[in-house]
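Case study 2.
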Amino acid sequence: MVGTIILAAACAMLCLGWGVTLRREAASRKAVEKALCGVETRSREMLENIKLIAVIVDTDGNITFCNDFFLNVVGWRREEILGANWFDSFIPPNQGTVKRLFDSFRAEGAFPVHLQNDIVTRDGKSRFISWNNTVLRDWSGQISGIMGIGEDITDRINAENALSFYREQLEKLAAELSLAEERERRRLAADLHDRIGQSLAFANIKTHTLREFVADGGRRHLADLMGLMEQVIQDVRTLIFQISPPILYELGLEAALEWLAESTQQERGFPVIFSDGGESKPLADEMKVTLFQVVRELLINAAKHARPAQVAIDVRRRGNRIVLMVKDDGVGFDISSVSINPRAHPGFGLFNIRQRMETLGGDVAIDSLPGRGTTVTVSAPLAHGRHDSI
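Prediction:
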């Protein structure tokens, strides 16, 4: 009897404890739910106030939330959007990749964090959005949808495209100006050769014929005059080659570069070794002139800044491209430092060369280290068929 009473009392106490526990758990669950509701409310308020697009879709792709900023972008009212399918309403038909990614998300539970795609507004225009996506889960941990926070970068992309277009136009204009300059250089060099050069040569011949008519006392002065005439003729020839070397058009790039190597060696005092693979390398005049100017600028750059003991020029053909390498054993430089402050660095001219070659479809590779010299490799397309002459 006593045992039965004790057992009944124990059961009563256990039931009371369960009741208290259940009441506590219920109260705790209500508190958690209330807190979560508060978090959700504050989160929605935050999404409403940010100056970014905020959209939530469920696992069927239907819109369950959108903020006012999104409504202003697309031009719809909230009641017209909530419940609508995101892909049917806002994704252009030509962007099926986005729908395929969402279908994969439904099957596997993963979706790209970062995504960029167009959306269609009410008036049929497209806006380009950069998204930051988050997979949402319910209280039980089950996937419930996706929240996307998006930035409308349409205007920025349009501005970048416009800037790229104007940059291309500027590069084309610079190339045209370079060709016009070369044509003028060639005309000036021809005038110097045909007029001043010929006149000096004729005057030199006449001066030599005066020797037999000059008394012994004046022959020394005549010899000085003849020497001066020879020097002026040589200076004019050098000037003609510096302005626009005829050899470049008459014998080709390889012969012009070999002459440039010899001329630089005589002028600068360090050996300039030229080598050529001997292959046929047809080039448009524009490319021929540009490559010659590039090598001349590289040699000047080496003489000014590198203090080399020797410079090597090598020209080869690789497939449908010409590959030209200029290598010096000078002081070299840190390439990364040029990107920080290029105009204050001697390597700035090298990066100008890169821009010039890229305009013509060429490539420039620069390899340099302090104390290890500099190697510049220039690659450019060969000519196919007919091409215009300068």
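The domain at 31-152 is CATH 3.30.450.20 (Beta-Lactamase).
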